[in-house]
């Protein structure tokens, strides 16, 4: 089934804004437009419920109820229990918290431990794990081959390992890693997995339980919501890792790994993500499914739309010998995050593209280690074009035409 793009775009007020209306948002990997349901909930919370939640008076009870709603609405869509969903100020902060929890776990067990990282990791999350070397941990690196992480290269690294952290999708390579197979191999080796899903979740919320991830992290501001980090922590992992909470929060599910209070209004507004996905499902298909089932169907619709949008850009790249596309050459096996090594520095193309109505990104993009592994000087960087399911085929064609003009 094809998405009704008119309906989709009607859910995003940004498309009606004069400063954005005639432009293509091609930097969704950095942050998506928020849907109107999120904006409305955030506005309502700040107007009507901006009090300390959880006390016995009406505004406080309502505030707490709306924060709780975000948990019980989103958790089923992720295939997890409500108590397994945590909120934090960002995915970077959540990754820091988890790395600290692992540090304390290893210290409590009286051993330095072994941590496996990759050279596809986003610096904002991967560097927290590399710093465990300062506590004596052995840090092993799962290295790409031709931009890809290969399972056969991982298996030897897992011997005696405690934790593997890896990206579900790299924010420059764009290739979808087989997270389920990676998590299964890691579990067989007796290690824990921490999956960075920041660049995967915007293209369809994952079923974390089916993936088999012990910890899965992603960002609400890239999944049409406010600037919050969401983190699914499975019961087994939660039982092993020391709590990072304060006082009573140290023992409560859902906040055991939240060392500071989350932004109450933004947590409540995250329920708007579920509002939007449910509205999208109801508009296209009336048959009922559970939360994870709806999310899975919607992910398929998103994928179909994104393939149509990215194909003109991929075709443009394949027709040039002076441009290098990182990651898979076609739509198969990738998300619509496309990074290009260009003749000039990546950042040099941002302003010319903006003059043609295309909002893109360029530079090292917090992926210096990945770029070096691919033979690219981070100072030269890349130009990145990234779409979402609200990107039309016409937008994709317009971006390809603009790229041709500036290149």
From TrEMBL:
Key word Glycoprotein present = no
Instruction: Please state every residue range assigned to the domain named Aminotransferase class V.
Output: 28-227
Q: Which domain of life is it from?
A: Bacteria
Q: Which InterPro entries match?
A: Aminotrans_V_dom, PyrdxlP-dep_Trfase, PyrdxlP-dep_Trfase_major, PyrdxlP-dep_Trfase_small
Entry keywords, A to Z: Lyase, Pyridoxal phosphate
Task: State one molecular function term (GO).
Answer: lyase activity
Keyword hit for Lyase: yes
Q: What is this protein called?
A: Selenocysteine lyase/cysteine desulfurase
Name the species this protein comes from: Hasllibacter halocynthiae
């Amino acid at each position: 089934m094809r998405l009704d793009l008119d309906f989709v775009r009607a859910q995003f007020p940004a498309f009606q804004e004069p400063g954005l209306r005639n432009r293509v948002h091609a930097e969704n990997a950095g942050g998506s437009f928020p849907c109107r349901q999120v904006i409305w909930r955030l506005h309502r919370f700040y107007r009507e419920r901006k009090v300390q939640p959880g006390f016995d008076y009406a505004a406080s009870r309502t505030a707490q109820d709306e924060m709780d709603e975000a948990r019980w609405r989103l958790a089923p869509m992720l295939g997890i229990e409500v108590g397994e969903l945590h909120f934090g100020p960002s995915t970077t902060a959540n990754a820091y918290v988890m790395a600290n929890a692992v540090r304390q776990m290893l210290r409590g067990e009286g051993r330095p431990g072994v941590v496996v990282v990759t050279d596809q990791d986003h610096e904002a999350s991967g560097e927290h794990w590399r710093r465990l070397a300062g506590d004596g941990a052995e840090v092993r690196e799962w290295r790409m081959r031709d931009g890809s992480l290969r399972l056969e290269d991982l298996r030897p690294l897992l011997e005696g390992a405690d934790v593997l952290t890896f990206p579900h999708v790299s924010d420059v390579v764009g290739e979808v890693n087989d997270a389920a197979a990676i998590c299964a191999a890691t579990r067989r080796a007796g290690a824990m997995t921490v999956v960075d899903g920041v660049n995967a979740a915007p293209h369809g919320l994952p079923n974390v339980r089916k993936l088999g991830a012990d910890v899965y992290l992603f960002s609400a501001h890239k999944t049409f919501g406010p600037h919050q980090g969401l983190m699914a922590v499975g019961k087994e992992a939660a039982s092993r890792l020391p709590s990072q909470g304060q006082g009573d929060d140290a023992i409560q599910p859902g906040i055991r790994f939240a060392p500071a209070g989350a932004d109450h209004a933004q947590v409540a507004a995250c329920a708007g993500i579920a509002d939007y996905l449910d509205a999208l499902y109801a508009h296209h298909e009336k048959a009922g499914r559970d939360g994870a089932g709806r999310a899975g169907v919607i992910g398929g619709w998103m994928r179909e739309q994104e393939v149509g949008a990215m194909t003109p850009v991929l075709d443009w790249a394949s027709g040039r010998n002076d441009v290098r596309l990182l990651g898979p050459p076609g739509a198969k096996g990738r998300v619509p995050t496309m990074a290009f090594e260009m003749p000039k520095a990546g950042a040099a193309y941002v302003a010319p593209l903006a003059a043609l109505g295309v909002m893109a990104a360029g530079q090292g993009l917090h992926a210096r280690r990945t770029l070096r592994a691919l033979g690219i000087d981070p100072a030269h960087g890349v130009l990145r074009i990234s779409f979402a399911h609200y990107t039309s085929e016409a937008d994709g064609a317009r971006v390809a035409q603009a790229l041709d003009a500036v290149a």
